[in-house]
Design brief:
The chain has 78 residues and is mainly beta. Helix content is 0%, strand content 36%. Strand 1 and strand 2 form a beta hairpin. It starts with 5 loop residues before the first strand and ends in a 24-residue tail after the last strand.
Amino acid sequence: MYGSNVKRLIIYVERTTAHLDYIWHSSYQQSDRWYDTQVTVRNFSGRLHFEATYGFGSLGDIALDNIAIEHGDCVDNG
């Protein structure tokens, strides 16, 4: 998430048709580097939705890469 027009990246889980539960977000410019993020989703079944929003203008990039879905809680490797 980099650039002055970047606003928000939100993750929702769709547990039932037409109902999205908010589970995580990041707001505004973070850096021009890649960052690792882990999110534990309890009782997951359904679909994940990723929503990226931006302001007016073309100065901003939001990218997702190497998404993995695994069973169990996230482990802090830091």
